[in-house]
Specification:
The complex is a heterotrimer of chains A (337), B (333) and C (343). With 337 residues, chain A is mainly α. Chain A has a single domain, classed as MetI-like fold. In chain A, 69% of the residues lie in helices and 0% in strands. Chain B has a domain of 82 residues. Chain B has an eight-stranded mixed beta sheet. In chain B, α4 packs across α5 and α5 packs parallel to α6. Chain B is globular. By secondary structure, chain C is mostly helical. Chain C has a domain of 193 residues: Orthogonal Bundle (MetI-like fold), CATH 1.10.3720.10. Helices cover 75% and strands 0% of the residues of chain C. Chain C contains 13 helices and no strands. In chain C, α9 packs across α10. The radius of gyration of chain C is 25 Å and the shape is globular. Classes of the chains: A mainly alpha (337), B alpha/beta (333), C mainly alpha (343).
Amino acid sequence: MTEGNGTDTLLPGAPEGGQRRAVWLNFKLVAGASMVLLVVFFGLLGPLFWNTKLADPASSPPNLPPIWEAGGTGAHPLGTESLGRDILALLIVGSEATLRVGAIAAAAGLVIAVVLGFGGGYLGGWVDDVVRVLADSWVTIPALAVLVVLAAALQGVTADTEALLLALFSWPEATRMIRSQMLSMRGRSYVKMARLSGVSSAGIMFTEILPNMIPYVVASFVRAMAGAIMAATGLEALGLGPTQTPTLGTTIYYAIQGSALLRGIWWWWGMPVVVLVLIFSGLFILSIGLDEVANPRIKRYRYRVRRAGRRPAVPVTASAVSAGPATVATPSVGTEQ
Amino acid sequence: MSDAVLEVEGLKVEYQTSSGPAVAVNGISFQVFPGETLGLVGESGCGKSTTAMAILNLVQAPGRIAEGSIRLNGTELSTLNPRSMRRIRWQEVALIPQGAMDSLNPVVRVDSQIAEVIEDHEGRQRFADMHERITELLGMVGLPARVGRLYPHELSGGMKQRVCIAMAIALRPKLLVADEPTSALDVVVQRVVAQTLLDVTQRLGMAMILIGHDIALQAQLVDRMAVMYAGSIVEVGRVESIFDHPSHPYTQLLVSSVPSITERRRRPSDATVREVHHRPSGCVFRLRCPQAFDRCRAEVPAMRELVPGHVVACHLYAGGSGEPAPAEAAGHV
Amino acid sequence: MRLRGLNLRYVLRRLGTFVLTVWLAATLIFIIPRLAGGNPIAAMVGKISVAAGGAETAHSGALVAAWDARFGLNDPVFVQYLIFLKNSVTFNFGFSITDYPASVNQLIGAALPWTLGLVGLATVIAFVLGTGIGAFMAWRRTPSLIRSVLPLSLTFTAVPSFMLGLLLLWVFSYTLGWFPAGNAYSLGVTPGLNLPFLWNVVQHGILPALTIVGAAMGFWALSMRGMMVTIEGEDYMVLGEAKGLRPSRLFWRYRVRNSALPQVTSLALNLGAIISGQILVEYLFDYPGVGQLLYQGILNEDYVLVESIVFLLIVATALAVLVLDLILPLIDPRISYLREVPR
């Protein structure tokens, strides 16, 4: 997964012309990306350091606590569960599977979203109407409920099938976002200029609009991934996840089935939850960071609040800024820090 | 002159940017006298709107009033605490905003928006009194009473601007600041709204600062005119005087190009933008000035009174330069 | 009084979206299991015969054929689809396969009040509380410490509700023993409108409700704060300030009111996700609502029950969205206007 790295270089600044500036130092962006990357490396590099065969049932003595509790052993530092699987090995295999499911689902959903969002937003007219109504209706469908029926009907999915099912529900939100950004970008002056100078629609889309859309597309991907992983874990916790590959969600499912709560085997469900919290929080913070990069007004607000203590606080007007001399004087306030 | 409603002296407004402070308004001074209408003309980006916001002490946070004094009816505003400032706003000086389209609270009915300002400054009123007062205010700007029950989005652009005018005169302030009040309207409506504004201020004897970029439109509405360029006032005088004898080279440019400047909502010219960021030495206008000479580079021109009430900041009139223009101007009036 | 904003075109468009949503969902539910292959009746008959303890293989073939005919599975797919749509729209779901004498409607009818009570109450609490906190975070006089710490703590918003539920269960039920771990009321208590029973219900409901509120509140707080920030840049905020209005009026009537209304739109858009979360919470807490019923259906491979519940959930969500959409123009004068004008 490279989007964590990618964002740093792909986001030179706000898409307002003339405000480009390296903002990869945005703290939230870095913090969020690091949290996610930590799990990515854990899942990818873990197998080099730990025997993932221990994730198979009956490969270890059952119900061992983590190493720091009485009875724990260095052979299974995070303990084992009732089916005789090593928790550390489960986490390594599960992280990789869960992230992969999320990434595939988000990527597939994003392809749909980019096609629909760009098409609708750029072409306008009835195409846009159809896209909007479709996305608006689809977004209100309780995804998990439908996924439950689908997964149950398929009677045992693989991780990849699961990802494709999830993609069915990861496109509408991204589509809505891309579409509305397209609409606002279509009206911007540099796009109008390109149009007047006779550049073709496709040309404008790829040379003028797409580069400026990148922060939004990346943010959509991050959000879609979080949504997909959330749905995936839900599905898996209900026992409808992939049957061959252990994921973080299925581990929780077995823990619930094995009455881990009642029996006090907290590490069985607690460890995967810790990893999931890391993933979700990381993606969440990352998406907030991306928002601040894509939409400098949020940052500008923070700047203002800090100063408000000294002077009578006065609000910034969007239009006062854009129509008055402030435009001239404050082009880079938003991305300053 | 202590009989002025508003006295601005050496007002300087800066915006903090990452590359240091940018000066939007650079030490301007002017007065507004009771009952008169002063036009503040200049290109977009020259600092006129910032001046308007500074008068209400509403310069937004990255910007701040760096220097200068603003006296409204003798009260110094730049050092006033927020609570007293709040009371002075609207009671003594009201704003007619630039973006009337979006300046009304979209979720509150028109009459409540007028009522709230009366209530917050004068306390609670009897419903019947309030109703009568609002009806009267709407009537003064030519709106039927039923408009009060509508929401902003149900009004046309011209009606919204009229509502803004009605709101501005609700407390009978001594001074109105109208920031391009008609620039967002189409041309026909523009005239009518401007006329309404003028009628109302004359009837109530209010002074007004009318900000605009359209020197031709302004000429028909204002008594005196101040021309702004890149944060500085370069010329002030009575309208007739300015049009008959534009003295500053920039004013001359504006007056001679009247047809082209009526184009609505001009974008700031590159020159203005550059000059706010990297103020040239000496005269701000010298880079675009057809008559610039050595002294313009070396020295900031001071304000000089050509004839009583007509001042200009230009080295051409520094005396002894042998230019014919000042002599002609002086001799004419 | 004129019904402002409720023009016919708007209502028709919303109704159209509602119908489309229901139809899309119903079609998905119909198509995918058939694409997956396999005969649900055969699977069910197999289960029944196993449950009966006998290997009645000789009869089961005939049984399958008979049931196929009865459920119309021999008809062309298109006819089946129409029948399915007709049955769905009339809420004629037939019988539960596992609880045979009970009809699907009966089962759902028993579970629905619990779900409505829990999800409805918890969602409203989360929405109101979260919106309030969001407004508070954007308030100027809020201490900066709170303003910077609060958003941080809301990061846990990103974590799905059932994980929070696991944590709450472990701490407050299994470790501290303050609250019961499952079900909606204790076995020994007879349901009725008496105080002990209601108290019992409340005790059982606190943890699941806390789970939903805890997970959802931060979302509302953050989006409210975001709206408040955006609103602050609007022209009418500047004019409001120029008008010298009392700060409290500026805050409530200008910022909060303009920010809170879009929250309702957001609520409509997120109902689907809320319902999805509810399923998991009920499953986790053994709460006898629709979500738990759904899980039982999956467990018993009772596809009729599962499909009916899911269909109902979709209709309920779409209906709630429709109601919110129709209410919105009444409380927010901007809406109908905004939607009708091409941007």
